[in-house]
Amino acid sequence: MKFSITVTLKKDVLDPQGKVVKNTLVNMGMNNLKSIRQGKHFEIEVNETDPIFAEKKVDEMCKKLLVNLIIEDYKINRI
Amino acid sequence: MKFSITVTLKKDVLDPQGKVVKNTLVNMGMNNLKSIRQGKHFEIEVNETDPIFAEKKVDEMCKKLLVNLIIEDYKINRI
Predict the structure, then answer these.
(1) Whose CB has fewer CB within 10 Å in chain A, the N or C terminal residue?
(2) What percent of chain B lies above the pLDDT cut of 90?
(3) Residue A48 belongs to a domain with what CATH number?
């Protein structure tokens, strides 16, 4: 069973990496760029047959290791 | 107009970062984890009204800066 996890910085958290990317793109001539924020993406495959239990496991992985809940939000999708 | 971009490593490209994450999760007791691969995620907002032109611009940004086409794949979604 496969899941995709998208981890993004919370709204009010500064994103210096995104800012650098934005400045670079603007310098390259992309003037219509308004904002850009960078996050992480994980593709996880688990050996489970029960989708609810599998999602619970993936959620546990996020909370314990993959996501810093103080500054990041996350979203789990089954793929 | 907002777009989300997911950048993943191509299938045959090694993912050392993902491997470390996997080992750590297995050591934490997640034995049913089969595989995990890490990628990047961008949220881009552009000042455009034409969705086709906007997506073209975002695609150009991916090709020119955000994605290393030799080792990475990407997917653009309008959000």
Answers:
(1) C
(2) 94
(3) 3.30.1280.10
